[in-house]
Amino acid sequence: MITPETQILKLLPLEPKNYARQVAVFELKTDQDLLPQCQEFVEQARTKLNGLIAQNISSVACHHIRSLIIDKLVQNLFEYFHQQIIGQPAKQGHCVLFATGGYGRQEMAMYSDIDLLLCFDKADNRFSEMMEKMLYLLWDLGLEVGHALRDLSESKDLMKADVTIMSSMLDARVLCGSSVLGDRVYKIRDDLLRQDSFRKRFFQDKVEERKKRLKKYGGSVYVLEPNIKEGEGGLRDLHLMRWIGQILGLDGSFASLSAKGFIEKDVQQFCEQALEFYFYVRNQLHRRAKRKADQIGFVDQIDISELMGLQDSEDERAVEKFMQCYYETAATIHSATKNLIQKAEEYLQGRINQLVSNIKTKAIDKDFCIVNNRIALKDKDLFLKNPLAMMTVFRHVQSLGLGLHFSTKELLRKHLATVDDDYRANPDVCALLKEIMSDYHNLQKPFFAMHEVHFFEAILPEFKRLRSKTQHDVYHVYTVDTHSIFALEQLALLHEDHEHQKRFPVFYEALSQVKRRDLLAFGVLFHDIGKGKGGSHSVIGAQIANQIMTRLGYSDEEKEAVEFLVLSHLIMPHLSQRRDLEDLQMVREFSVAMKNLDRLNMLFVLVWADIRAVSAEAWTEWKGSLLIALYSKTVELMKASNASEDYLETRVEHVRAEILKRIPSSEERGLVQTFIESISPRYVFAHDDEEILEHFELIKNHDDSRLLFEEREHVDAGISEILLYALTNPRLVPLVTGVMLAHRVNILSLENFVMSDGHVLIKMNVQSSDGQSLGRTNLLDRVRKSLHDVFVSKANVDDLIAKSRPPSYMQKNPVQEEESKVQIDNDVSAYYTVIDIFTHDRVGLLYEIITCLSANGCYVEVSKISTKVDQVVDTFYVKDIFGHKITNKQKLNEIQARLIDVITGQGAWTS
After folding, report:
1. CB-based contacts of 685, cutoff 8 Å, min separation 6
2. Does residue 287 have a pLDDT over 70?
3. Is a pLDDT exceeding 50 seen at residue 189?
4. SS3 for 579?
């Protein structure tokens, strides 16, 4: 097992006998002010600790030394105030002062809380006065102090009733006062822990507390900015393991858990190293924040990786190495905690010393049974006698939907060396893996089970380098390996969850038409397998996928299908989010690349699963609508009897004829004919008959002295579709985007349909800044009024923008700023120059870009906005003033340079 320390963390050991030597002598001088003396001691201690940390002294040692420093301070103050107020030495009194929590464990980071408990055997108001004076002085020193005062009876009642208080008492340590009274408190605690009924209840309370904690702090090891203390697999799980040891009657060390067989020896070593690793990271968080801090923020991750001395390599950044180690550590601790909980549960049921075969169980088959609702082996030598059973157990996980018993996990880990090249190529092993991939019921569960015991990278060694591999951006939440398994989970949900089927009917229908579900599942699992090797991960991944499929015994045709999915999995998001979906040339080229409907269906579902598995924020109904639009248009084109160059012209004429048939009045028919002849073929391709007639009804009696404004809400997507109609004006698009900016309205797409009769029809999809349609936020009327006022020159758009500009303290810097760039492409479209802009998002960016394009003679007809958290790719389809593509090289270079200035400069809206 690789430990965090041996992987990346090199700290100098310090013998426990030398801890006390690091603490300065401190004795209060009673004839001088207390505060200056204490301040000097605390400052010296902090300097000493910073020096030890800078020397890379063991973090366990540093935590212990800080606890000893605080001991010196608290003991001196307690003795002083006890003598002053009670009138006798503290050890002769009727109270005892405990350190509890992390302070009791002597595990204090730089700015950890100081938790104190004063217990007494007889009530005395002077105890409160004494504690109050001590606490005020500690607070004046800038220390965080938690405190409680209790008599013995109250202490017993609270330990019985409150799981948090009992937990703190497990770590309680006498600091000063009556040692006799301290022993009485310990006896109350220990007597409770000897009662079977209390132990079982306390254990269950701790397990339930853990479930609630994990739910609160993300419910996954792979949180983007994990909480090192409370998160899954964090410090609190290590604390829980030791508390469970105390509940079981042990001393609460990892060594005692190992000695009694509750954890393996290598798990003990891993936990001890993990504690060192976590303490190091936590100390650095405290030092950076100059206060208590437990969340490893995005910027913290970069700084701590640098402090560790990690270096960027060709295929991996230093920060990704650090987070890979963190996630692997957290995943291992999470698994170890779950296994210990299972063992403790069985022990407390009185069965830990019985053989698994003697436990009352439910049989699955001749080899496997269910123990405590988990899959166990009937014979502990099964994997030795029949290695194929190592694959069979995961098929049972899938079919039954149950997890593995801790004994099964331990045996799987012990026999991992059995999984060699011959094992992977065994036809029976391959057949079981194919069987799993063909059955979408619980598809993700066997792979999560494999991942936990490291069987995943044993059976598919190509994933070994991707284990816990991170992508350091604010978009990808999960590591590469677990993201792929979460994507399989999305397939399973689409297959059998009715809510998913109702919410995503087009994707469900496409899945139902897929002919080979195992090939789709392998494509989903392998789609990112090429990451981390440099170059295009799609190309590299397709080659790796081919090797695996060859090993599994698939035919050339089957291998080629999976290769295609891996190679093409980025195409649909790219085209749907960044390209004009009404561009027949683009759709035709895409349909040719798909070759057949089955491949299109598989790719369509894979892309859905991929985006859904990235993070909760990655998928939006808007992205879904764009994917569906591309898919639907491609299906239509692939099914068309004639998809040649004249297809668009033929289709436009057909649509115009069909619309005219629906108009009974000859007078009305003439007006409609005039309208549909004035609109562009692209407009006809972008709208169905109903929409075209609806637009005609809106504009047939339009007065050119005003701006037509109509809004339609798309409830499911939380989007407003806005239709504007007016006489053509080269400044119209910049004015419209300026008004949207003034009202903090996000433009998701903009289409500008120029008509031959001198009018323009603008269609936009927009949202409020908090992701809602305009009508849901009371913005609709205000936006409508501002647009009318600007259109008739009653208001100036720049004034509206200036009035709405937020103060500088409300403007955000990007969390992660990628290199800004501008790409201009004259090949992707037959009719437009296409400009892609990559930069970090900021308020007013779109307005600045469109204003710049307008000032340089570029007229935007289509704009698509794609955002990943705070990184954007804005795409603009533009023409020159004469309605042509811009081909002059000098002009294109000039446009590119001016756009670079806009997106990298410090404009009015930048912070």
Report:
1. 582, 584, 648, 651, 652
2. yes
3. yes
4. coil
Count of beta carbons in the 10 Å neighbourhood of residue 183: 12
- DSSP-assigned states of every residue in 831-856: S-EEEEEEEE--TTHHHHHHHHHHHT
CA pair distance 122, 804, nearest whole angstrom:
65
Summarize pLDDT for 458-498 with one digit per residue, the tens: 999 999 988 888 876 555 667 888 999 999 999 999 999 99
- pLDDT at site 644: 56
Half-sphere exposure of 836 (CA within 13 A, CB side): 17
Q: What does the pLDDT read at residue 198?
A: 92
- The pLDDT of residue 810 is 44
Residue 236: name the closest of 105, 343, 145, 57 by CA. 105
| pLDDT, tens only, 494-523 | 999 999 999 999 999 999 999 999 999 999
Q: To which H or E segment does residue 693 belong? A: helix 689-699
Q: At what angle do helices 265-289 and 298-307 cross, to 10 degrees?
A: 110
Find the angle CA(110)-CA(113)-CA(116) to the nearest 5 degrees: 135
**Residue-level length of the chain:** 911
| pTM higher than the cut 0.70 | yes
CB contact set of 76 (below 8 Å; sequence gap of 6+): 26, 27, 28
Alpha-carbon gap, residue 231 to 214, rounded angstroms? 6
**What six digits make up the tokens of 235?**
């410090």
Which residues lie below 8 Å from residue 809, measured CB to CB, with a gap of 6+? Answer: none
Spatial distance between the Cα atoms of 247 and 506, rounded to a whole number of angstroms = 53
H helix count then E strand count, the chain: 40, 16
Cα(762)–Cα(753) distance, integer angstroms: 6
Q: How does pLDDT run across 241-260, given as a tens digit for each residue?
A: 999 999 999 998 999 999 99
Q: How far apart are CA 911 and CA 902, in angstroms?
A: 14
Question: 781: buried, middle or exposed (CB in 10 Å: 19+, 13-18, 0-12)?
Answer: exposed
**In angstroms, rounded to a whole number, what is the distance separating the alpha carbons of residues 157 and 433?**
55
Residue 818 has pLDDT above 80, yes or no: no
Kindly state the percentage of the chain with pLDDT values over 70.
Answer: 94
Q: How many CB atoms lie within 10 A of CB 531?
A: 20
Cα distance between residue 308 and residue 288, in whole Å: 14
Mean pLDDT over each residue of the chain, to the nearest integer? 88
Alpha-carbon distance of 464 to 735, in angstroms, equals 54
